[in-house]
Write a structure and sequence with these properties.
5-stranded antiparallel β-sheet, 3-stranded antiparallel β-sheet
Length: 205
Amino acid sequence: WLGKCQMCMPGRHVSKFRNDECMCAKNGGGNDNFDVSVRGRNGLVDGVSLFPLFGGQFFDRCNECRRRMEADGVIMPGSSCSRNPTGTMSLGPLNMDNLWKDFGPPNVSHTIGRYPADCIPNSGGGSACKLRCGIHNGRQMHINYNPKIYSGEWELVRGLDTSNWRNGCLACGSTLETAGFIDSGWECRRRRNGIYLENFQYRMQ
């Protein structure tokens, strides 16, 4: 089981992850035959055998995933298995705060780093933790600190002076790169609903 969970573990290499899923249970047979997964942040349980019909295997495999993921610290206790209206099974809510609490470098100052200072990335549905990226034209800028693991991340830059959005976004990206929160290679792009910092990858520490 150890090392089979690839859905939500912080890491720098995309190759460590398998379609945003956690291989966490077995339909049967073999010591390494993990063919049931929990997918995505919505906790969809996938790969459960349809047979025997009405055999209770959906709840069994879901609870097997829950026990393994809790024991390995991937999720905090408190999740449960439930049937969806479509007949599929989900495990939720998935509290992964334990994985993310030490993610990323320490704060640089009260204007650069996590806000609140002790917030956990990816908490509160991805919006409870801000990543402040400095002040431009007297305005405090930030993005939501919501790592998705992959390269090519994108986040709306908030607090910008829209009369000079490009310089503000460039200042935000440069600040986060210098402070060690993101790697180089990012860019700024204007979209319909605002200015985005795009094509970047978070650093673990």
